[in-house]
Design goal:
The chain has 390 residues and is α/β, with parallel strands linked by helices. The protein folds into two domains: 5-42 and 286-386, Aspartate Aminotransferase, domain 1, CATH 3.90.1150.10; 45-282, Aspartate Aminotransferase, domain 2, CATH 3.40.640. It is built from 14 helices and 13 strands. It has a seven-stranded mixed β-sheet, with helices on both faces. A four-stranded antiparallel β-sheet has the order 9-10-13-12. It has a two-stranded parallel ribbon with strand order 1-11. It is globular and about 55 Å long. The relative contact order is 0.17.
């Protein structure tokens, strides 16, 4: 029998990084890395100073803390969600986790037994699928349409007695698309009717293109019976290395998640939590500037698109950190992606890493994580892709 880890595939970003081995890039034609969705800059200096102050003078920063996170941080985030979504979120309904990936893992552990099913829209975030594999669960692919969004009726048709949740990400990874509020509400109602959970990963919510709340689910007085919301401080405050995420859910769910956290990390990173709390209290204006910059880069993707659209490229999805393309080449995507590194100095991911094995759509699609490129960098990316003969 294979071990739990042997039931799933190798981490895609790590696998793709190995395509760089033995490849050299000239100074006038450096590597363009659009592989991983992560900020490349450190946190802003005032936050780093707050971190240094805590490391030097706050003894508790170096000790174990509560399994579900610092009470002050849980309360601050509950207040933020209550204000942002116009609903009622209590501190006891918020848990702090070691990154958003642990939030997803904890939710799945709290909900599922071996052999259960979780519905994921395809293409999906690969770590979600990996964790389901390692838990002995069945990933049920929910097709998405030409707009990269799922049909609620198709989602409902996939539910069986073993289904425990529908798990979605909005803004989406990998396709970038933002789920309209009415679609999120429809999926929420389907989950409520079937007494399963809607797991909504909002890692990239701070970079949503629309002003205001991206959905109204927290305004439902019984939201906690159905909704599990996930969040990441990593993308908002450039805290990727500190591993700080969050889950907002029913207290009964968090009681189960507490068992998982206590057995894995015991508690979230204390220094990272202190930084996240400082960010929530002090960086709203700075974060608004970060959002504006990401939205400008999104606009640059659209502005430069004609340079490659005339050569057969098609933009399927766009938002947050991601642009999702259909490529025009006869070469399958899992061969094209490493070839692009060797021949054109572009590192991106093939959609075979986001779709079920054997799904032919994966061989025609590529994900570009553009958040670490400014407008000029996006222009250079289009120049490289446009130079490839179709």
């Amino acid at each position: 029998m294979p071990s739990r880890t042997q039931t799933t595939f190798a981490p895609p970003v790590m696998a793709a990084s190995r395509w760089l081995e033995g490849v050299t890039f000239s100074a006038d034609r450096p590597l363009i890395n659009v592989c991983q969705a992560a900020p490349v800059d450190p946190p802003p200096m005032p936050m780093r100073e707050a971190i240094a102050e805590a490391v030097l003078h706050n003894d508790a920063a170096h000790l174990y803390g509560p399994d579900l996170g610092l009470p002050e941080l849980r309360a601050e985030l509950a207040g933020k969600w209550s204000r942002a979504y116009g609903g009622a979120v209590a501190p006891a309904q918020v848990a702090i986790t070691s990154g958003c990936n642990q939030a997803f893992a904890g939710a799945i552990m709290a909900l599922c037994a071996e052999g259960d099913e979780v519905i994921l829209p395809s293409p999906w975030y690969f770590n979600h699928h990996m964790w389901l594999d390692m838990c002995g669960l069945r990933t049920v692919a929910l097709p998405t349409g030409p707009d990269m969004l799922p049909d609620p009726a198709e989602a409902a048709a996939l539910i069986t007695p073993r289904t425990r949740a529908i798990a979605i990400a909005s803004p989406n990874n990998p396709a970038g698309v933002e789920y309209p509020p009415e679609l999120l509400r429809a999926l929420f109602e389907i989950c409520r009717e079937n007494r399963i959970k809607l797991i909504l990963d909002e890692t990239y919510r701070d970079f949503h293109a629309a002003p205001g709340a991206p959905h109204d689910l927290f305004t439902d007085p019984d939201w906690h019976d159905t909704l599990i919301q996930l969040y990441s401080f990593s993308k908002a405050y450039r805290l990727t290395g500190h591993r700080v995420g969050a889950m907002t859910a029913a207290t009964a769910v968090l009681a189960e998640v507490e068992k998982f956290i206590d057995s894995v990390t015991i508690c979230p990173n204390q220094v990272g939590q202190i930084a996240a709390l400082w960010g929530l209290r002090n960086l709203d204006q700075w974060l608004a500037g970060e959002r504006a910059e990401i939205l400008d880069r999104r606009a640059a993707i659209l502005d430069g698109l004609p340079a490659i659209a005339g050569r057969g490229w098609e933009l399927l999805g766009l938002g947050a950190y991601f642009a999702y393309f259909r490529h025009p080449f006869d070469m399958p995507a899992d061969q094209l992606a490493p070839w692009l590194v060797r021949e054109h100095g572009v590192l991106l991911l093939p959609a075979t890493m986001f779709r079920a094995e054997g799904d032919p759509r994966g061989q025609r699609e590529l994900r570009v994580a553009f958040a670490n490129l400014d407008r000029a960098g996006i222009g250079r990316l289009y120049d490289r892709l446009g130079d490839i003969p179709a």
